[in-house]
Amino acid sequence: MGALDNLEPKSVFHFFEEISQIPHGSNNVQAISDYLVKFAKDRNLEYIQDEARNVIIFGNATKGYEDKEPVILQGHMDMVAVHDADYDIDMTTEPLKLETDGKKIWAKGTSLGGDDGIAVAYCLALLDSDTIPHPRLEVVITTNEETGMDGAFAIDLSPLKGRKLINIDSETEGVLLTSCAGGARFYARLPITKVHRSGIAYDIEVSGLHGGHSGTEIIKEYGNANVLLGRILAYVSEQNCVSCLSLVSIDGGVADNAIPVNSKATVVVSEEVSEEEVLRSVSEIEGVVKGELSVKDPGVKFTVTKKNKGTFDCFDAESMKKVYRLIMSLPNGIQAMSASVPGLVETSLNLGVVVTKDTTVTLEYAVRSSVDSSKDNLLKRLEYITAEFGARSEITSSYPGWPFNPDSKLREHMVEVFEKMYGRKPQISALHAGVECGLFGKKLEGLDCISIGPDMEGVHTTAEKLSVESSARTFEYLCEVLK
């Protein structure tokens, strides 16, 4: 028996569990894409699989709906694949281990992939059913949304006839998302010079942070492990004068759009420096940071682990200084709040990944703004600062925002259905995060979009959970909208 066999609706959770058995982290989507193709073939459904591994499946209209306009249902097949540091799993090859208490679903030691596995499960349940009434369905499942909407950029939508699109990539039930921020990925690539250095190696690690989605959670101002690690290195090297400290490597985070919860640096100090002095120096800055984050992120922890003695390839003094000063000089977090939508972040960025490879340290940021000129200005600011440190900038995956459509017939219909079902109006919302509606709107003239989804928490983290009851209600609502 599967872990979700007793949950309703059975078809939805059956397909959700099947998906969870196929590793499908971003950039590891071949297997999940082929699974979708097999699903279509087994049911004699027309399908398209492109070179980017996007899949479009066409579902025939049920009896009485043959003359109705097709509806596009859309989600993405990839997930942010992260696991706890002490949980032994290879998420590129091993399935998720789902658990449930009947009210929520989570995965042991890993992220769940409710974002956006629930969309795929909804779509497959609809395509598999011969009892749910609906017009012709054009189901679009894209690849690598979490790493820059690569699939949405690559996909050819010309075969689609529908001009009403329901995106299923939101995370709060009862909310109709009607616009979102645009964004881009920014890389700062800093060249480093290495020297041989003898001494004792230590690992300095930041952990225990809340983390979360860098769009929806950035407003909570959780600690960023990469930024904090840069601060530690600056303090230990300059403020507290631990002599002869050299940097071997610095690495942290898993994705640009996930607020990093772990970051680690390996350093070498001379044998004359005692372990107590190193511990004391890190403890001093830890006390300061804990005070600052006592309410926002109280679980933050700094760990120092003594390793072996030897000779190591280290950054030279100038390279090490540039690394931590660049981390501290580049902005991070909220840059501006919306003047027109109370409580909505307008512009932000997140240092999601730091990685050391050979003679380069790369900083990777997710940049977001609902105002295109503000996004462009922030990217230019990043370029200027990066250049001052002798580093190279690269901007990729720039995608447009999704503007509010004041004449949306789809929104009117979905509000009306919601009121009839629940006796209240849904919330009409904007989001400081990217969904693929903006890109789809650029490709299909006259496209009318709404984004919905069930309640989720902790997305992009190992604390991710999906509400069972909310998933059931949201599916019921989607079916009623199609009916």
UniProtKB/TrEMBL annotation:
Keyword Protease carried by entry: yes
EC number, as in UniProt: 3.4.13.18
Keyword Cell membrane listed: no
Known cofactor(s): Zn(2+); Co(2+)
Superkingdom assignment: Bacteria
InterPro entries: Peptidase_M20, Peptidase_M20C
Catalytic activity, as annotated: Hydrolysis of dipeptides, preferentially hydrophobic dipeptides including prolyl amino acids
GO biological process, one term: proteolysis
GO MF annotation: an example: metal ion binding
Entry keywords, A to Z: Cobalt, Hydrolase, Metal-binding, Metalloprotease, Protease, Zinc
Any Gene Ontology CC annotation: cytosol
Top-level enzyme category: hydrolase
NCBIfam families on file: aa-his-dipept
PANTHER family assigned to the protein according to its UniProt record, in alphabetical order: CYTOSOL NON-SPECIFIC DIPEPTIDASE
Family, per entry: Belongs to the peptidase M20C family.
UniProt-recorded name of the protein: Cytosol non-specific dipeptidase
Organism per entry: Butyrivibrio fibrisolvens DSM 3071
